[in-house]
Design brief:
Blueprint: H1 2-22, H2 29-35, E1 37-43, E2 50-52, E3 55-57, H3 59-71, E4 74-80, H4 83-91, E5 97-103, E6 112-121, E7 123-128, E8 146-150, H5 154-165, E9 171-175, H6 182-190, E10 196-200, H7 201-208, E11 214-219, E12 224-231, H8 235-248, H9 252-262, H10 288-295, H11 302-313, H12 333-338, H13 349-366, H14 373-386, H15 388-400, H16 408-417, H17 422-425, H18 438-458
Parallel strand pairs: 1-4, 1-5, 8-9, 8-10
Antiparallel strand pairs: 2-3, 5-12, 6-12, 7-10, 7-11
Length: 461
């Protein structure tokens, strides 16, 4: 009897021991390929992942998309609030890959495998570099200088340590307003509001494509390794990422992605438009007849279409922006496709203007609750420039914080600008994440001003 009971207990334990082991299935690159999709976890930021004109973009996102294209996989994206959440989400199995350069830490090597994109990061001084400016070329030159950084950040800590190393003298100013980010401080340097700030080199490089008058050549910290990461139990995925990165490090696709984010200028056109002398009196462009044709029977004045065209392309039909907008009306590939145009059709002025009018009609319906047509035009222009998702987010934020979601100046405009700050773009009411709203604000003002100018030239006013 005792033997039977003992035998039963042994069998019982072996059965549930085997069952427990079977409950942990292997999920590595082979299973990902069988499923046909890869899920990345990343952050909303100007470098990693963001939505622009309703299209997903970002350095890390584009590289992950290239990896997926290479292996015939669909790319899914999950966004974390911060670096700590990235790692937590990966460990919980909410994604397959952290597509963001997280610092390499020895204490995490038991749970993570660092693979794929590898970066060497360091902090740099951002200073204005206009003609005649004297640049600081050595960290000792910071003694006696006013340097502004966000309080409680690694940049502030590095400055404190550097000040100690130099024996004191750096005038460190901490900015603690919730609405100020590192990129805001860079802009302040560019426009001369402050002299110096500090940020990671890759952030500085991207922002130099917006502000060409800044110098970012002086490092103020030691180099630190950063990398994409996968779970420790997915060695085959790690191997595939490493092999892909080695094979594609110098390919045209990889180089074009680097150029897109860290080299191509993001600045709008410089200078004012001079009406060509060969145009008849009252004309503003070589395409006036097409603007009049497509404005006929619509609620838009042809000068309104011409002003949009001017700020999208300066009436040049052979341009493609850093983001991929092309043709005289600056249409993005997916937007053009949704309007029935091929990518090549965008370079046909007649088709491009016609599609732009369809897009304006689409946006007009989205913002139909704004009764005043002149006020609605501002929202339409903002959405034409940024994509309606970000404008809808700004409206939702405005409503949440007691502003008017149907008024542009001082209301929705204000919250669009705040969407570059994590406190706001991580808000549950926001669906489209991070955005640099400053350029869109300028775009709305500039297009309206240009339209009024074109109306005067053409004799309407």
């Amino acid at each position: 009897m005792r033997f039977s009971i003992a035998f039963f207990l042994v069998c019982f334990c072996l059965f549930f021991s085997c069952k427990k082991k079977q409950e942990v299935p292997v999920y590595d690159f082979e299973q990902i390929k069988e499923k046909g999709e890869l899920t990345i976890i990343t952050l909303n930021s100007s470098t990693s992942y963001f939505i622009y004109k309703e299209e997903a973009m970002g350095y890390d996102y584009d590289l992950a998309q290239d990896f997926c294209d290479h292996h015939g996989l669909k790319l899914n994206v999950k966004v974390a609030e911060n670096t700590s959440k990235l790692i937590e989400m990966l460990k919980r199995g909410e994604g397959d890959l952290i597509a963001y350069a997280v610092p390499v830490q020895n204490e995490l090597k038991d749970s993570l495998r660092y693979s794929g994109l590898q970066q060497i990061t360091r902090q740099v001084l951002v200073q204005q570099a206009n003609k005649g400016d004297t640049l600081i070329q050595d960290v000792t030159g910071l003694i006696g200088k006013d340097v502004y950084v966000e309080g409680g950040t690694k940049y502030h800590q590095r400055l404190v340590n550097l000040d100690s190393e130099l024996g004191g003298g750096i005038q460190i100013h901490t900015v603690n307003e919730d609405t100020i980010t590192s990129e805001d401080l860079i802009e302040m340097v560019a426009i001369g509001k402050i002299k110096y700030t500090v940020c990671d080199e890759y952030i500085a490089k991207l922002n130099r494509t917006y502000y060409r008058n800044i110098d970012i050549s002086l490092p103020i910290s030691f180099e630190q390794r950063a990398s994409w990461a996968v779970r420790k139990d997915t060695p085959e995925l790690a191997k595939a990422l490493d092999e892909w990165f080695i094979e594609n490090d110098n390919t045209p696709v990889y180089q074009s992605i680097i150029k897109k984010y860290f080299e191509l200028s993001k600045q709008p056109f410089d200078g004012d438009y001079t009406i060509p002398k060969n145009l008849p009196k009252g004309a503003v462009s070589p395409y006036d007849d097409l603007f009049k044709k497509h404005a006929s029977g619509t609620k838009y004045e042809w000068q309104f279409l011409a002003a949009i065209c001017y700020h999208e392309s300066r009436f040049q039909n052979n341009l493609t922006s850093w983001a991929g907008a092309a043709g005289i009306m600056g249409l993005m590939p997916k937007t053009a496709a949704s309007l029935g145009l091929t990518s090549e059709d965008r370079m046909n002025p007649d088709l491009s203007i016609g599609a732009a009018v369809e897009l304006l009609d689409r946006l007009d319906k989205i913002f139909r609750k704004i009764q005043d047509i002149k006020e609605r035009e501002k929202f339409i222009l903002a959405a034409y420039n940024a994509g309606n998702g970000h404008i809808n987010d700004a409206q939702a934020l405005a409503e949440k914080y007691g502003a008017n979601p149907y008024v542009w100046e001082g209301n929705v405009q204000k919250y669009l600008e705040l969407k570059s700050n994590p406190e706001y773009y991580n808000d549950p009411v926001c669906k489209s994440g991070y955005f640099r709203g400053g350029e869109t604000m300028k775009y709305v003002t500039s297009v309206i001003s240009t339209m009024e100018r074109f109306e005067r030239i053409s004799g309407k006013k």
